Amino acid sequence: MHEAPARPGRGPVGLTAQDISAGWRIASGTVYWLANTHRWRRHKNGRRVFYHRDDVLATMRARAAGALDGAPTGHTA
To answer: Where are the domains of the chain?
Structure first.
């Protein structure tokens, strides 16, 4: 299972869709789908959206374990 480490200087800010897409090698469209489906907590800083790291990790752990029903396969942005 691949977990994106917290980046230096980011602190509790969160993860962007780009961080998640690159860290888990999934399409950005899948990131937005997962965020919506699993109701990740999020906040904005200007135009950037940051997802709560704990929510992202919980979903990605469940995906890796095969526990999520309906997760898109081969979904592209």
So the answer is: 12-64
Cα(51)–Cα(73) distance, integer angstroms? 22
Rounded-to-integer distance, Cα 32 and Cα 45, Å = 17
Summarize pLDDT for 25-45 with one digit per residue, the tens.
Answer: 999 999 999 999 999 999 999
The residue assigned the tokens 């299972």 is 1
Measured distance CA(68)–CA(49) in Å, rounded: 24
CATH architecture designation of domain 12-64: Orthogonal Bundle (1.10)
Closest of 60, 45, 74, 47 to residue 3, by C-alpha: 60
pTM: 0.70
